[in-house]
Amino acid sequence: MKNLVEELKWRGLFHDMMPGTEEQLTKESTTAYIGFDPTADSLHIGSMVQIILLVHLKNFGHKPIALIGGATGMIGDPSGKSDERNLLDEATLNKNVAGIKAVLSSFLDFNATDANAPILVNNYDWMKNFSFIDFARDIGKRITVNYMMSKDSVKKRLGADGEGMSFTEFTYQLIQGYDFQHLYKTHNCLLQMGGSDQWGNITTGTELVRRMGGEGAKAYALTTPLITKADGSKFGKSEGGNVWLTADKTSVYKFYQFWLNTSDEDAEKYIKIFTFLDKNTIDALTEEHKTAPHLRVLQRKLTEEITILVHGKEELEKAIKASNILFGNSTSEDLKGLDAATFLEIFDGVPQAEISKSDIEAGINIVDVLNEKSGFLKSNGEARRALSANSISVNKEKVTEEFTLSAKDMINNQFVLLQSGKKNYFVLSVK
Q1: Which residues pair with 76 in a beta bridge?
Q2: Residue 43, CB half-sphere, CA atoms under 13 Å: how many?
Q3: Quick check: 209 and 230 in contact, CB under 8 A?
Q4: Which of 63, 175, 75, 193 is nearest to 130 (CA)?
Q5: CA–CA separation, 33 and 35 (whole Å)
Q6: Which of 117, 195, 266, 408 has the fewest beta carbons closer than 10 A?
Q7: How many CB atoms lie within 10 A of CB 95?
Q8: Beta strand 189-195 with 220-224: parallel, antiparallel or unpaired?
Q9: Nearest partner of 41 among 83, 82, 102, 84, judged by Cα
Q10: Where do the DSSP E strands lie in 78-235?
């Protein structure tokens, strides 16, 4: 077997592992799992590390299991949290589980039939029939309270600065630990992976496997580092909040811009973590970037690769066109190819004015559009001077004083884009 751990180390995807993990992964095809809690009906880019880890696992000849925490999601993982999560009702939880299944299915083919085909499971399926008494008797007695109290996720909450934790959250590590035992028993799953903040929960699982799996039962753990930006700030957020993996929550244009605006230092790190480019290719790109950093070679390749991975090549091309509308050469046809949401995102913060659709359909002289109808320019005289200087564009096309704005100039039947010079934009919202 190719050495997965070596691959993860040079990519910056390795944090820690239990003794014997690397040997197991190089010895034979191994089944491993990662859990995803359904706290929302999608996943954001903070989950990309774990998704990519499952894909690497498959590519290296192992069998990945993606677990959605339908049961654990009802409780909330205390790891890395300073206070208790709000509990979700069943309808919300079901909606979230369905959304996460859809996201994961775009990266892993759960319908494949080969020996290492990925599996998608929901821990609610085996936890729903567990009575409290059964769980306390069969699982609770296997792990001491002392052992559970020693975990960082518990100690931090119970320490002097902590807010304490409910019994509900305290049991989380037992339930997650039982997930590992269940997958060990039903799928011969030998390895759990996750972020470094999950180490305590994962090792509780390995302990349950050892204590419940019979003589010779072994289980392993491997964690990835928590990703941060070079300035120390949290990865995965933009000014508008989380960057999601579905276009209904974060448009492809905004997703594209997030990665394109990565710093040089972060781009050098992220291209190893978030793409499947080989080491020679990445090293060559890094050297090319260092000789001409202004060309942003790393950022462009990173953005291209991850946008295709998450949204597909066609959506990447649309995002590039949308970006060029503001920052490069584009045409009226490019503008008219944008959907309304992307148009508004591109021109977010640009001054706007409403204009009557009936007025446009009747035809309006450009001088009146620029002054009286929009207030974009202060007077008819200023409008005429700008037109004479050939500095006015409508939908990215230069116009003269003879131009008449009409219905054919509307974008999506909703907008008209005015421009004075290179950077001075104004949006007419058609009502």
Answers
A1: none
A2: 23
A3: no
A4: 175
A5: 7
A6: 408
A7: 15
A8: parallel
A9: 102
A10: 119-122, 189-195, 220-224
Q: Are 53 and 107 in contact (CB under 8 A)?
A: no
Coil vs helix vs strand at 129: coil
H/E segment holding residue 304: helix 297-311
In angstroms, the Cα distances linking 72 to 4, 38, 39, 120, 209 are 29, 9, 10, 16, 18
Give me 302's structure tokens: 């990173």
Which residue is associated with the tokens 């949401």? 341
Neighbours of 152 (CB within 10 A): 12
Token pair listed for 79: 């790891």
The amino acid occupying position 362 is: A
Q: Which residues pair with 353 in a beta bridge?
A: 428
Cα 81 off chain centre by: 20
Residue with tokens 């996750």: 194
Q: How many CB atoms lie within 10 A of CB 323?
A: 17
What is the residue-wise DSSP string for 237-286?
EETTEE-BSSTTTS-HHHHHHHHHT--HHHHHHHHHHS----HHHHHHHH
Is 161 in contact with 83 (CB distance < 8 Å)? no
Q: Answer yes or no: are the C-beta atoms of 303 and 252 closer than 8 Å.
A: no
| DSSP element (H, E) containing 52 | helix 48-59
How distant is the alpha carbon of residue 168 from its chain centre? Answer: 29
Token digits for 209?
């496997």
Three-class secondary structure of residue 98 per DSSP: helix
CA atoms of 340 and 412, how far apart (whole Å): 7
For residues 275 and 258, what is the distance between their CA atoms, to the nearest angstrom? 15
Query: Could you give the CA distance from residue 21 to residue 202 in angstroms, rounded to a whole number?
Result: 13
Q: How far is CA 129 from CA 126, 213, 238, in A?
A: 7, 21, 41
pTM: 0.84
For residues 143 and 431, what is the distance between their CA atoms, to the nearest angstrom? 66
Residue indicated by tokens 């792990």 = 143
Distance CA 219, CA 90 (A): 32
For the chain, 431 residues long, the average pLDDT of each consecutive 10-residue run is: 97 97 97 94 95 98 96 68 61 92 96 95 91 84 79 73 74 88 96 94 92 89 93 72 92 92 96 98 97 96 98 92 78 81 85 92 94 93 95 93 94 92 90 89
Q: Which residue has the tokens 């289980």?
A: 219
C-alpha to C-alpha distance for 286 and 290, rounded to whole angstroms: 6
